[in-house]
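Example record used in the benchmark description.
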Amino acid sequence: MLTAINGVQINLQTRYYDPVVGRFLNADIYVSTGQEFLGWNMFVYCLNNPVMMYDPEGEWANLISKGAQAAKKYGPRAWNWSRNTAVRIRNWRPLRRAPRVPVQAPARLTMRAPTELNFRHNLQVFTGRTNVNGFHAHHVLPKSGEFRNAFARAGIRNVHEPRFGAWVPARQHLSWSAEYNRLWRDFFNRHNWNATQRQVFDFARGLGRRYGFAVRF
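Model output (structure tokens):
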């Protein structure tokens, strides 16, 4: 019985055979079997002709009767076929899976300095969004310089912090950005440009509901 060991080695009772190299793993108990030149090789299997020979005990190569009849009937053609087949068996190599290439996780984005230049990047990190194609990073608190002092009086020092941002579809954002700034101008005019932080945040949340973007403060 042929028993696979670790998927490669084969137990032939007396010895183990490795089909990858076409050799026994341990030497024959006979220094020579007297079977021509290959009989002196203590590690070959069936004189390197496993098609025409068989070795049930791993010690002595015996000619298969049907193979002998075929050799007698077809002559060199049968021998050449068996020899070529034996060479193919000896050169057989088990299929090996390609080495698994570890998949590297995408580089994790980190927060940068809260500036206008880094606003889009920081908003992406803050919101955890990976696909922002077709979206504008909207300043919920307008970045226009005319509002800077009014926001500062309300205790808001930097409108480029990512918590003051929202993702808005680009086409939609372009359609109402001018109106958005006008509403903020009207708001500060009503409060004599001295609105409190709570009033600023409440007004910003109302605009979020009006234009359909998320406010995260």
